[in-house]
Protein backbone atom coordinates (compact mmCIF):
# COMPACT_ATOMS: atom_id res chain seq x y z
CA UNK A 1 0.00 0.00 0.00
CA UNK A 2 1.35 3.44 -0.96
CA UNK A 3 2.30 5.59 2.00
CA UNK A 4 0.52 8.94 2.27
CA UNK A 5 3.39 11.18 3.30
CA UNK A 6 2.71 14.31 5.33
CA UNK A 7 4.72 17.46 5.89
CA UNK A 8 5.79 15.97 9.24
CA UNK A 9 7.24 12.95 7.44
CA UNK A 10 9.13 15.18 5.00
CA UNK A 11 10.49 17.31 7.85
CA UNK A 12 11.77 14.20 9.66
CA UNK A 13 13.47 12.86 6.53
CA UNK A 14 15.11 16.23 5.85
CA UNK A 15 15.92 16.88 9.51
CA UNK A 16 14.28 20.29 9.40
CA UNK A 17 11.16 21.81 10.96
CA UNK A 18 7.66 21.41 9.51
CA UNK A 19 7.50 25.17 8.96
CA UNK A 20 10.61 24.96 6.76
CA UNK A 21 9.02 22.28 4.58
CA UNK A 22 5.87 24.37 4.34
CA UNK A 23 7.89 27.41 3.26
CA UNK A 24 9.62 25.38 0.57
CA UNK A 25 6.26 24.14 -0.71
CA UNK A 26 4.97 27.73 -0.70
CA UNK A 27 8.10 28.99 -2.50
CA UNK A 28 8.96 31.35 0.33
CA UNK A 29 11.95 33.46 -0.82
CA UNK A 30 13.30 33.55 2.76
CA UNK A 31 14.38 29.89 2.53
CA UNK A 32 18.04 29.48 1.61
CA UNK A 33 18.81 27.82 -1.70
CA UNK A 34 20.74 25.02 0.00
CA UNK A 35 17.80 24.17 2.28
CA UNK A 36 15.36 24.43 -0.61
CA UNK A 37 17.36 21.97 -2.69
CA UNK A 38 17.74 19.58 0.24
CA UNK A 39 14.01 19.49 0.92
CA UNK A 40 13.07 19.39 -2.77
CA UNK A 41 15.38 16.43 -3.36
CA UNK A 42 13.58 14.41 -0.69
CA UNK A 43 10.18 15.50 -2.00
CA UNK A 44 11.09 14.40 -5.52
CA UNK A 45 12.66 11.11 -4.41
CA UNK A 46 9.53 9.89 -2.59
CA UNK A 47 7.07 11.34 -5.06
CA UNK A 48 5.46 13.62 -2.48
CA UNK A 49 3.12 16.35 -3.72
CA UNK A 50 1.32 19.03 -1.69
CA UNK A 51 -2.04 17.85 -2.88
CA UNK A 52 -1.57 14.54 -1.06
CA UNK A 53 -0.85 16.42 2.13
CA UNK A 54 -3.87 18.63 1.57
CA UNK A 55 -5.94 15.51 0.93
CA UNK A 56 -4.81 13.91 4.18
CA UNK A 57 -5.44 17.07 6.21
CA UNK A 58 -8.73 18.11 4.61
CA UNK A 59 -10.34 14.78 3.85
CA UNK A 60 -10.86 15.87 0.24
CA UNK A 61 -10.23 13.66 -2.74
CA UNK A 62 -8.52 16.23 -4.91
CA UNK A 63 -7.33 19.82 -4.29
CA UNK A 64 -9.28 22.35 -6.31
CA UNK A 65 -9.34 26.12 -5.84
CA UNK A 66 -12.23 28.22 -7.08
CA UNK A 67 -11.26 31.67 -8.36
CA UNK A 68 -13.87 34.41 -8.83
CA UNK A 69 -12.51 37.30 -10.90
CA UNK A 70 -14.41 40.52 -11.54
CA UNK A 71 -13.54 40.81 -15.24
CA UNK A 72 -11.32 38.54 -17.29
CA UNK A 73 -10.41 41.45 -19.56
CA UNK A 74 -9.10 43.59 -16.70
CA UNK A 75 -5.40 44.31 -17.15
CA UNK A 76 -4.68 44.36 -13.42
CA UNK A 77 -6.72 41.27 -12.59
CA UNK A 78 -5.14 39.39 -15.48
CA UNK A 79 -1.67 40.03 -14.07
CA UNK A 80 -2.76 38.88 -10.63
CA UNK A 81 -4.57 35.84 -12.05
CA UNK A 82 -1.48 34.82 -14.01
CA UNK A 83 0.57 34.81 -10.80
CA UNK A 84 -2.13 32.83 -8.98
CA UNK A 85 -2.30 30.18 -11.68
CA UNK A 86 1.48 29.83 -11.82
CA UNK A 87 1.62 29.30 -8.05
CA UNK A 88 -1.28 26.83 -8.03
CA UNK A 89 0.10 24.80 -10.94
CA UNK A 90 3.40 24.63 -9.10
CA UNK A 91 1.53 22.99 -6.22
CA UNK A 92 -0.37 20.69 -8.61
CA UNK A 93 -3.66 22.29 -7.60
CA UNK A 94 -6.45 22.63 -10.15
CA UNK A 95 -8.17 26.05 -10.54
CA UNK A 96 -11.77 26.68 -11.56
CA UNK A 97 -12.11 30.25 -12.88
CA UNK A 98 -15.42 32.10 -13.05
CA UNK A 99 -16.37 35.74 -13.62
CA UNK A 100 -18.62 37.94 -11.47
CA UNK A 101 -18.96 41.00 -13.72
CA UNK A 102 -19.15 43.12 -10.54
CA UNK A 103 -22.42 41.41 -9.58
CA UNK A 104 -22.92 40.32 -5.95
CA UNK A 105 -25.55 37.79 -6.98
CA UNK A 106 -23.06 36.18 -9.33
CA UNK A 107 -20.55 35.85 -6.49
CA UNK A 108 -23.16 34.16 -4.30
CA UNK A 109 -24.13 31.90 -7.20
CA UNK A 110 -20.51 30.89 -7.86
CA UNK A 111 -19.84 30.19 -4.18
CA UNK A 112 -22.90 27.97 -4.04
CA UNK A 113 -21.74 26.20 -7.19
CA UNK A 114 -18.33 25.59 -5.63
CA UNK A 115 -20.02 24.07 -2.57
CA UNK A 116 -22.00 21.72 -4.77
CA UNK A 117 -18.80 20.61 -6.46
CA UNK A 118 -17.10 20.14 -3.07
CA UNK A 119 -14.58 22.90 -3.67
CA UNK A 120 -13.58 24.12 -0.22
CA UNK A 121 -10.99 26.78 -1.06
CA UNK A 122 -11.62 30.02 -2.96
CA UNK A 123 -9.91 33.22 -3.99
CA UNK A 124 -12.27 36.12 -4.64
CA UNK A 125 -11.41 39.37 -6.38
CA UNK A 126 -13.24 41.90 -4.22
CA UNK A 127 -15.12 44.90 -5.56
CA UNK A 128 -17.72 47.39 -4.44
CA UNK A 129 -20.42 46.83 -3.34
CA UNK A 130 -19.49 43.21 -2.60
CA UNK A 131 -20.58 42.74 1.02
CA UNK A 132 -18.73 40.93 3.74
CA UNK A 133 -21.92 39.02 4.60
CA UNK A 134 -21.88 37.17 1.28
CA UNK A 135 -18.26 36.18 1.77
CA UNK A 136 -18.74 35.13 5.39
CA UNK A 137 -21.42 32.65 4.34
CA UNK A 138 -18.62 30.66 2.74
CA UNK A 139 -17.57 28.03 5.27
CA UNK A 140 -14.31 26.93 3.65
CA UNK A 141 -10.91 28.47 3.05
CA UNK A 142 -11.06 31.94 1.51
CA UNK A 143 -8.79 34.82 0.54
CA UNK A 144 -10.04 38.12 -0.90
CA UNK A 145 -7.95 40.26 -3.23
CA UNK A 146 -8.15 44.08 -3.61
CA UNK A 147 -10.48 44.78 -0.66
CA UNK A 148 -9.73 45.01 3.05
CA UNK A 149 -11.92 42.96 5.36
CA UNK A 150 -11.27 42.82 9.09
CA UNK A 151 -12.56 39.28 9.60
CA UNK A 152 -11.50 37.68 6.30
CA UNK A 153 -7.99 36.96 5.09
CA UNK A 154 -7.22 39.42 2.33
CA UNK A 155 -4.54 40.97 0.16
CA UNK A 156 -5.25 44.61 -0.61
CA UNK A 157 -3.62 47.55 -2.38
CA UNK A 158 -2.45 50.98 -1.28
CA UNK A 159 -4.82 52.96 -3.52
CA UNK A 160 -4.42 56.27 -1.73
CA UNK A 161 -0.65 55.97 -1.37
CA UNK A 162 -0.24 55.21 -5.07
CA UNK A 163 -2.21 58.27 -6.21
CA UNK A 164 -0.36 60.45 -3.74
CA UNK A 165 3.00 59.19 -5.04
CA UNK A 166 2.08 59.91 -8.67
CA UNK A 167 0.76 63.37 -7.80
CA UNK A 168 3.92 64.11 -5.86
CA UNK A 169 5.97 63.05 -8.88
CA UNK A 170 4.16 65.55 -11.08
CA UNK A 171 4.34 68.24 -8.41
CA UNK A 172 8.10 67.93 -7.95
CA UNK A 173 8.48 68.20 -11.73
CA UNK A 174 6.86 71.62 -11.52
CA UNK A 175 3.34 70.87 -12.76
CA UNK A 176 0.54 72.78 -11.05
CA UNK A 177 -2.43 72.17 -13.35
CA UNK A 178 -2.85 68.40 -12.95
CA UNK A 179 -6.01 66.79 -14.29
CA UNK A 180 -7.42 63.52 -12.98
CA UNK A 181 -9.49 60.92 -14.85
CA UNK A 182 -11.01 58.49 -12.40
CA UNK A 183 -13.78 55.98 -11.66
CA UNK A 184 -17.19 56.72 -10.14
CA UNK A 185 -17.36 56.71 -6.33
CA UNK A 186 -19.61 53.64 -6.29
CA UNK A 187 -16.36 51.74 -6.61
CA UNK A 188 -14.80 51.91 -3.15
CA UNK A 189 -11.15 51.32 -4.02
CA UNK A 190 -10.42 52.14 -7.67
CA UNK A 191 -13.07 54.86 -7.45
CA UNK A 192 -13.65 56.68 -4.17
CA UNK A 193 -10.32 56.05 -2.43
CA UNK A 194 -8.21 57.09 -5.42
CA UNK A 195 -10.30 60.17 -6.17
CA UNK A 196 -10.19 61.25 -2.53
CA UNK A 197 -6.42 60.92 -2.52
CA UNK A 198 -6.23 63.21 -5.57
CA UNK A 199 -8.51 65.78 -3.91
CA UNK A 200 -6.56 65.60 -0.64
CA UNK A 201 -3.30 66.25 -2.47
CA UNK A 202 -4.81 69.24 -4.27
CA UNK A 203 -6.04 70.69 -0.99
CA UNK A 204 -2.73 70.15 0.78
CA UNK A 205 -0.75 71.81 -2.03
CA UNK A 206 -3.30 74.50 -2.87
CA UNK A 207 -4.00 73.17 -6.36
CA UNK A 208 -7.31 73.62 -8.12
CA UNK A 209 -9.00 70.22 -8.62
CA UNK A 210 -9.69 69.36 -12.24
CA UNK A 211 -11.22 65.91 -12.61
CA UNK A 212 -13.75 63.74 -14.41
CA UNK A 213 -15.20 60.42 -13.22
CA UNK A 214 -16.47 57.68 -15.51
CA UNK A 215 -16.91 53.93 -16.02
CA UNK A 216 -14.02 51.48 -16.18
CA UNK A 217 -13.57 51.04 -19.93
CA UNK A 218 -11.48 52.56 -22.71
CA UNK A 219 -14.32 54.24 -24.58
CA UNK A 220 -15.64 55.89 -21.42
CA UNK A 221 -12.15 57.15 -20.67
CA UNK A 222 -11.88 58.57 -24.16
CA UNK A 223 -15.30 60.26 -24.01
CA UNK A 224 -14.73 61.85 -20.59
CA UNK A 225 -11.22 63.11 -21.30
CA UNK A 226 -12.72 66.22 -22.90
CA UNK A 227 -14.29 67.19 -19.56
CA UNK A 228 -10.92 68.17 -18.11
CA UNK A 229 -10.63 71.94 -18.20
CA UNK A 230 -7.77 74.04 -19.47
CA UNK A 231 -5.08 74.92 -18.53
CA UNK A 232 -3.85 71.34 -18.27
CA UNK A 233 -0.16 70.65 -17.68
CA UNK A 234 -0.33 66.90 -16.92
CA UNK A 235 -2.91 64.13 -16.49
CA UNK A 236 -3.22 61.37 -13.92
CA UNK A 237 -5.43 58.35 -14.74
CA UNK A 238 -6.78 56.00 -12.08
CA UNK A 239 -6.22 52.88 -14.23
CA UNK A 240 -4.41 51.58 -17.29
CA UNK A 241 -7.73 51.27 -19.12
CA UNK A 242 -8.55 54.95 -18.63
CA UNK A 243 -5.01 55.89 -19.62
CA UNK A 244 -5.49 54.19 -23.00
CA UNK A 245 -8.67 56.22 -23.58
CA UNK A 246 -6.93 59.42 -22.53
CA UNK A 247 -4.00 58.79 -24.89
CA UNK A 248 -6.41 58.28 -27.78
CA UNK A 249 -8.10 61.61 -26.98
CA UNK A 250 -4.87 63.58 -26.56
CA UNK A 251 -3.42 62.19 -29.78
CA UNK A 252 -6.53 63.12 -31.74
CA UNK A 253 -6.34 66.64 -30.31
CA UNK A 254 -2.59 66.73 -31.04
CA UNK A 255 -2.06 67.95 -27.51
CA UNK A 256 -0.12 65.22 -25.70
CA UNK A 257 0.59 65.92 -22.05
CA UNK A 258 2.78 64.17 -19.49
CA UNK A 259 0.68 61.21 -18.36
CA UNK A 260 0.71 59.03 -15.24
CA UNK A 261 -1.42 56.03 -14.31
CA UNK A 262 -1.69 53.11 -11.92
CA UNK A 263 -0.54 49.90 -13.59
CA UNK A 264 1.85 48.99 -16.37
CA UNK A 265 1.25 48.61 -20.09
CA UNK A 266 4.15 47.80 -22.45
CA UNK A 267 2.44 49.33 -25.48
CA UNK A 268 1.74 52.61 -23.73
CA UNK A 269 5.26 52.74 -22.35
CA UNK A 270 6.69 52.14 -25.82
CA UNK A 271 4.64 54.69 -27.75
CA UNK A 272 3.82 57.46 -25.27
CA UNK A 273 6.52 59.98 -24.24
CA UNK A 274 6.78 61.45 -20.73
CA UNK A 275 4.86 58.52 -19.29
CA UNK A 276 4.91 57.67 -15.58
CA UNK A 277 3.60 54.20 -14.73
CA UNK A 278 3.34 52.53 -11.37
CA UNK A 279 3.84 48.85 -10.59
CA UNK A 280 0.88 48.35 -8.30
CA UNK A 281 2.03 44.92 -7.10
CA UNK A 282 -0.48 42.81 -9.02
CA UNK A 283 1.88 39.84 -9.28
CA UNK A 284 2.82 40.08 -5.60
CA UNK A 285 -0.87 40.09 -4.69
CA UNK A 286 -1.41 36.85 -6.59
CA UNK A 287 1.53 35.14 -4.92
CA UNK A 288 0.47 36.30 -1.47
CA UNK A 289 -3.13 35.21 -2.02
CA UNK A 290 -2.00 31.67 -2.82
CA UNK A 291 0.38 31.67 0.14
CA UNK A 292 -2.40 32.67 2.55
CA UNK A 293 -4.77 30.12 1.04
CA UNK A 294 -2.23 27.30 1.28
CA UNK A 295 -1.69 28.13 4.94
CA UNK A 296 -5.43 27.66 5.49
CA UNK A 297 -5.45 24.41 3.50
CA UNK A 298 -2.67 23.07 5.72
CA UNK A 299 -4.59 23.93 8.89
CA UNK A 300 -3.66 27.51 9.82
CA UNK A 301 -7.03 29.29 10.05
CA UNK A 302 -5.63 32.56 11.42
CA UNK A 303 -7.14 35.55 9.61
CA UNK A 304 -4.41 37.65 8.01
CA UNK A 305 -4.35 40.87 6.00
CA UNK A 306 -1.49 41.94 3.76
CA UNK A 307 -0.97 45.35 2.18
CA UNK A 308 0.79 45.17 -1.20
CA UNK A 309 3.58 47.66 -1.87
CA UNK A 310 3.76 49.66 -5.10
CA UNK A 311 6.80 50.88 -7.03
CA UNK A 312 7.17 53.89 -9.28
CA UNK A 313 8.79 53.22 -12.63
UniProtKB/TrEMBL annotation:
Q: Which UniProt keywords apply?
A: DNA-binding, Transcription, Transcription regulation
- Any one GO MF annotation of this record: transcription cis-regulatory region binding
Q: Which Pfam families match?
A: LacI, Peripla_BP_3
Keyword DNA-binding on entry: yes
Cite the PROSITE patterns for this sequence. HTH_LACI_2
InterPro entries per record: HTH_LacI, LacI/GalR-like_sensor, Lambda_DNA-bd_dom_sf, Peripla_BP_I
Instruction: Work out whether the entry's keyword set contains Transcription regulation.
Output: yes
Q: Per the database record, which ranges form the HTH lacI-type domain?
A: 5-59
Q: Which organism is it from?
A: Rodentibacter mrazii
Record protein name field: Trehalose operon repressor
